[in-house]
């Protein structure tokens, strides 16, 4: 059982919205894989909706993996993209023109694409037509969120992961759509909900999500209970792999 300090009203997590930007897709993919797995941490009935913001179609990371997990979910996962660079507007220029000449200095130009090391998804380029996977253009706005995420309500949570500017912007827009603070979980952000809390780590945010939800197998509750003495170790190179491992270990004990 959870200790008194962690006790909160619990609901069954049925609908999971995820909004990410840039490398925030890495932990999001781990969550989607748990949703896609009928025996995963969120149970066989949980659904997920992902909205992924990238500068250009060339900057989308893990496209093959996202398509694979969406296909494997049997319709329980929806993945949508928005592209923010003006070159991606209808009738815009070649997206390669948005990548500056310093593209060989990684991390200096805000793009992941490189002329010197181009990446071609095995499942084909990002589909950018109307009604397709990348139908949206521009910064994440309220209209995109309303079209891409589940409506607020019992059993619904939204996870945010990405640059701080994205988190700050999306948090406010979600509030206008009816999502309360307890409905949101931020991964790896520096946002301080209260001065005493300090920055929320990925592990801490996941514990918060787990503490307010239960699943069919009760795996997330077990995860929180077995981690009550302190946050689990999260290694940057491992992403959320350690979280998934702990959830599976908790499942084996239930």
From TrEMBL:
GO terms for molecular function: oxidoreductase activity. Keywords: FAD, Flavoprotein, Oxidoreductase. It comes from the Eukaryota. It holds the Pfam family NAD_binding_1. Its cofactor is FAD. Residues 19-86 form the Oxidoreductase FAD/NAD(P)-binding domain. PANTHER family: NADH-CYTOCHROME B5 REDUCTASE. This is Oxidoreductase FAD/NAD(P)-binding domain-containing protein. It comes from Polarella glacialis.
